[in-house]
Amino acid sequence: MLRDITIGQHFPGDSIVHNCDPRLKLVATIGYVVVLYACGNAVGVALSILLLLALYAIAKVPVKLILKSLKPIVPIIAFTGIINLLFYPGETPLVSFWIFNIYPEGITFAVLMAVRILALIAGTSLLTYTTSPTVLTDAIENLLRPLSKIHVPVHEFAIIMTIALRFIPTLVDETEKIMNAQKARGAQLDTGKLGQRLKALVPILIPLFISAFRRADELAMAMECRCYRGGAGRTQLKVLKFGKNDFLCLGFCVVTFGIILATRWVFPVIG
Amino acid sequence: MEQMLRAQNVRFRYDPEQPVWALDGVTMDVKKGEFVAVLGANGCGKSTLAKHFNAILLPEEGTVLVEDMDTRTEEKLYDIRQKVGMVFQNPDNQIVATVVEEDVAFAPENLGVPTEEIRTRVDEAMKMAGIYEKRKAAPHKLSGGQKQRVAIAGVLAMRPDCIVLDEATAMLDPKGRRQVMQTIDKLRAAGVTIVSITHYMEEAARADRVLVMSGGRIVMEGTPQEIFAQTGRLHSYHLDVPQAAELRDALEAEGLPAPKQIITPDAAADWLFELLK
Ligand SMILES: Nc1ncnc2c1ncn2[C@@H]1O[C@H](COP(=O)(O)OP(=O)(O)OP(=O)(O)O)[C@@H](O)[C@H]1O
Ligand SMILES: [Mg+2]
Fold first, then answer.
1. Which of A56, A83, B27, B208 is at 20 to 30 A from B184, Cα to Cα?
2. Domain with A60 in it
3. Residue A176 belongs to some domain of the structure
4. Whole-prediction pTM value?
5. Is residue B93 in contact with ligand 1, taking CB distance under 6 Å?
6. Any domain includes A47
């Protein structure tokens, strides 16, 4: 059960999508989400999905993985879809029952919205599939570095992220061990009323927290032993370089995003 | 410069209000290039002593010198920590990064080493520790022995003159322990000074010198042969002797005098072979 929780599922590969500068990927992903919402018409959304499919194909990420990343949000999409369908105003109702009126405008809007959410998740997933969490952290640190001039603790956030990513698998393993140990003592974790189940979690959380604090203590000491003294004066093993290929990718993003956005002035805007 | 580490009359207590001394007058030294094993029952102050060698803890009385630097000199703090690397018991809690080579790079990054040199140092350290093949792996996917060698490589990347291992093999299975011992042998051959705290007498038997601690003091000191010849005294400090020495004592009790220097399986095998020939 716990093994399914993975943050930043990385799918290693050697495509241009994988090797492109992570800072560009991060900014482009944000740009993609903005364009997806700003274009506001069916043709634009269709083009963004085509672009995304093309990128997935270039990155050789299996379709199965996309579906897997979309599965958890199906309930959310269904929920927003139904709300949009029932409450979106229009002129002549298509169907009316009880206090609800469903208009054709509502249907188009609900569908467009659902497709946009799917594209949003699939788009951000492409970023995490093709970029390892460590590299992504580096990119975030690098992009935010100017903020450290105004005393935003950028390096500290980055090291917290790195350590969190490093310890998630360790703590998940530990949680499983503790759960098994408590089950062996007769704890009922999967059955019973909600109240009982919550109560059964206490003997799992307490050892987990104690052990996490002990680990934190030891890790802090090990870091001190390795001369850690904050971000000042630190160098890096891997320095991000914006190369020729990255300029090509940047150009590609600017052009495709521009085209998608331009559809706004050609086709009717919905919603 | 002959001595790597020197402790003079070191006293230390965790709680300055209580008259309980974790270290109660420790005087010892470690020569450059020497391999010293420290033995002692649980809670006798071994870890406390180890933490004095790179200024994680500072003595309340007495002095600790690393080469000629007093660990109390604040300006020298990072020079001292760079010279004396420390490896702890639980490898999981020493690894910072999510990729092996990035973790090994952590210390040189902190020291502000230029990027190209970090690369050479990291590769060198990983080869020395025998985990170069795993450089792209995620630490949580490695075995205990491999993780502990990542931790050793992480310390080696500082290019320390001395490494202090605080029960670095205690959580490992026999295979992992063997791998780590091989790495230690390699470091020893490369001239790195090693202080190893251990509960495994077989490991201590390979050292140049053995120190035995009890109640925050050093109570015995000598070559492994000298120390493990005194079975009775070791037992009084709640310590065992290596199996070969136990065999030697058992044979002696049966009226078969065996030479005192038999403390390793090889020495025992050779002697038995000669005897039975
Ligand atoms: N952080 C601490 N705070 C208070 N007392 C401590 C602390 N760490 C250790 N002690 C106490 O100091 C004494 C020496 O502990 P130390 O950890 O040095 O022993 P050790 O020889 O390393 O034992 P072990 O073989 O169990 O590792 C013990 O009595 C212990 O209870
Ligand atoms: Mg200890």
1. B27
2. 2-131+241-265
3. no
4. 0.83
5. no
6. yes
Contacts of B114 in chain A (CB under 8 A): 235
One-letter amino acid for residue B254 of the chain: E
B217 has a pLDDT exceeding 50: yes
Beta-bridge mates of residue B69: B66
Query: Domain count of chain A?
Result: 1
Whether A232 is covered by a domain: the verdict is: no
From B98's Cα to the closest Cα of chain A, the distance in A is 5
Q: Which residues of A touch B (CB under 8 A)?
A: 132-134, 159, 162-163, 165-166, 169-170, 173, 215, 218-219, 221-229, 233-239
Q: How far is residue B119 from each of residues A158, A160, A171, B35, B266, measured CA to CA in Å?
A: 21, 24, 30, 29, 41
**Distance in angstroms (rounded) separating the CA atoms of residues A158 and B242:** 48
Q: Residues with Cβ < 8 Å from A153, sequence gap 6 or more?
A: none
Of all ligands present, the nearest one to the C-alpha of B213 is 1
- Is the residue at A230 inside a domain? no
Q: Which of A166, A173, A238 to mutate to test the interface with B (most CBs of B within 10 A)?
A: A166
User: What ipTM is given for this predicted complex?
Assistant: 0.89
